[in-house]
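Students often ask why inverse folding is considered easier than folding. One informal answer: many sequences map to the same fold, so there is more than one right answer. In these notes we will look at a single instance of the problem. The structure comes first.
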C-alpha cells in the first residue's frame, strides 16, 4: 500500500489562498495530510480555511512555509513534478496513473513530494530539474488548462486507488534532494573543468546527466560513492604531473 503519511503536496508560488484551501480539502479527501507552500507566506488564512472547510482546517494550520524551492525540497527522497507542457527539456512524461503505480514501494521508506507550480505558468524547466518523475494530466486539446486544486485531486485520487492490491515491497531509502544537488554541483564543476561540458552552457548537458541518473533511484550511500569517485578523479588530475 502507498504510505500516504510520507507524501507531501508542495505548492510552488501559489497565487490565490482559495486555491490553497481547496488543495487542503482535496488532500484530506484522499488521505494526504501535509502541504508545503514555497514563496508566498502572506496568503489569507481565513480564505484558505473557508475553502478547506472545517474538516481540513488542521491541514491549513500545519502548512510549512519556505522561501526557496531547494530549501523546501532538500529533505525529500523522491520528487514528482507536474506540467501541462510536453517538451524535450522536461524529459519523459508519464500519466497520473503511471505515476501512482510507482509510489507504493517508494513511499514505504522515502519522503515523497508532489510538486505543483503557479496557477498561471506552472513549473519552469529550472524547477523541474529537481524532479525524479514528471507527470502530465491528459486533457482536451480545446482546453488544456486545469485548476490547481483539480490537478492535485487527480494525482491524489490515483495514489489513493493505487493503495489497494500491491504486494508489501518497498524501495530502500533514497538519497535526499539536498544530497543529489550536492552531487550534481560537484559533478558540474568537475566536468566543466575537464572540458566535458561546454562552459558557455553547462546546464544543457547536465540536464541529460540528471535525467539519466534520476532513472536509477540513487541511494544515499551510492551518492557518497559517486562523490568519492569525483573527488578521486579531481585529485588525480591535479597531481598527475607532480
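Output (designed amino acids):
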Amino acid at each position: 500500500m502507498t504510505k500516504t503519511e510520507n507524501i507531501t503536496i508542495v505548492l510552488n508560488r501559489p497565487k490565490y489562498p482559495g486555491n490553497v484551501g481547496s488543495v487542503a480539502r482535496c488532500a484530506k479527501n484522499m488521505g494526504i495530510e501535509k502541504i508545503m507552500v514555497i514563496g508566498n507566506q502572506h496568503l489569507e488564512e481565513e480564505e484558505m480555511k473557508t475553502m478547506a472547510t472545517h474538516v481540513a482546517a488542521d491541514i491549513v494550520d500545519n502548512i510549512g512555509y519556505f522561501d526557496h524551492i531547494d530549501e523546501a525540497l532538500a529533505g525529500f527522497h523522491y520528487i514528482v513534478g507536474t506540467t501541462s507542457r510536453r517538451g524535450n527539456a522536461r524529459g519523459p512524461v508519464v500519466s497520473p496513473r503511471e505515476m501512482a503505480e510507482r509510489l507504493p514501494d517508494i513511499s514505504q521508506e522515502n519522503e515523497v513530494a508532489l510538486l505543483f507550480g503557479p496557477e498561471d505558468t506552472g513549473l519552469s524547466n529550472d524547477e523541474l530539474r529537481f524532479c525524479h518523475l514528471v507527470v502530465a494530466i491528459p486533457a482536451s486539446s480545446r482546453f488544456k488548462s486545469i485548476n490547481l486544486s483539480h490537478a492535485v485531486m487527480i494525482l491524489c485520487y490515483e495514489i489513493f486507488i493505487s493503495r489497494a492490491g500491491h504486494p508489501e515491497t518497498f524501495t530502500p531509502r533514497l538519497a535526499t534532494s539536498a544530497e543529489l544537488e550536492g552531487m550534481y554541483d560537484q559533478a558540474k564543476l568537475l566536468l566543466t573543468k575537464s572540458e566535458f561540458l561546454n562552459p558557455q552552457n553547462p546546464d544543457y548537458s547536465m540536464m541529460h546527466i540528471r535525467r539519466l541518473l534520476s532513472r536509477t533511484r540513487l541511494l544515499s550511500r551510492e551518492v557518497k560513492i559517486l562523490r568519492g569517485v569525483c573527488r578521486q578523479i579531481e585529485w588525480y588530475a591535479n597531481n598527475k604531473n607532480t
